[in-house]
Each structure stands twice: as C-alpha cells, then as structure tokens.
C-alpha cells in the first residue's frame, strides 16, 4: 500500500491476477501466421516505382550539359548549380 493507503494500480495482487488460457495463445499464434501470409503476398507483388517529379526530370536532362560546361565532377556541386538554374 502507498502511504495514503491506496494500492498502486500497477501492482497486481495474486487474487486479481488473471492467467491466459490456451485458446488465447492459439489465437495469438494464428494471427501471427496470418500476418506472415500477408507480408509474403506483398513481397510477391511487383513494386511500382513513383514517377520522377519535374525537378528530377530537369536534372536528368540538364546534368550532361552542366558537366560539359563545368569541370566539376562532384555530384553535390552539380546539383547545386542545377538547383539555382
């Protein structure tokens, strides 16, 4: 008991303690099995990639021109130039 005389709600006394039955354990195992089946089905489906946005299409088209104009080979620097343009 707490100093106020009220038991803490997290403390479970033996007479209140509930034991799980075998049917509860069986239902948990079957739900895990169903989740595993769903994950397998998701993996079998082909992944469809998101289409490129406008900036990515622009970068793809203009990257070669920027590399030809500049002597930079660093991807980050090229991205900055394309971003400014």
Automatic annotation (TrEMBL):
Residues in the DNA-binding region annotation: 48-85
Query: Nucleus: present as a keyword of the record?
Result: yes
The record's region (Disordered) falls at 1-49
One GO MF term on file is:
DNA binding
Which UniProt keywords are present, listed alphabetically? Activator, DNA-binding, Nucleus, Transcription, Transcription regulation, Wnt signaling pathway
Domain HMG box, first and last residues per copy = 48-85
Biased amino acid composition, Polar residues = 15-31
Per UniProt, subcellular location reads as: Nucleus
* Example of a GO biological process term: Wnt signaling pathway
- Record-stated family: Belongs to the TCF/LEF family.
Q: Which PANTHER family does this UniProt record tie to the protein? A: TRANSCRIPTION FACTOR 7 FAMILY MEMBER (PTHR10373), TRANSCRIPTION FACTOR 7-LIKE 2 (PTHR10373:SF32)
Q: What is this protein called?
A: HMG box domain-containing protein
State the species of origin.
Cirrhinus mrigala
According to the entry, what is the taxonomic lineage of the organism? Eukaryota, Metazoa, Chordata, Craniata, Vertebrata
């Amino acid at each position: 008991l707490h100093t106020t005389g009220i038991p803490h709600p997290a403390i479970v006394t033996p007479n209140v303690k509930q034991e799980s039955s075998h049917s509860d354990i069986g239902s948990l195992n079957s739900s895990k099995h169903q989740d595993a089946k769903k994950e397998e089905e998701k993996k079998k489906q082909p992944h469809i990639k998101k289409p490129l946005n406008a900036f990515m299409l622009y970068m793809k088209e203009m990257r070669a021109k920027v590399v030809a104009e500049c002597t930079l080979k660093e991807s980050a620097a090229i991205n900055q130039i394309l971003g400014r343009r």
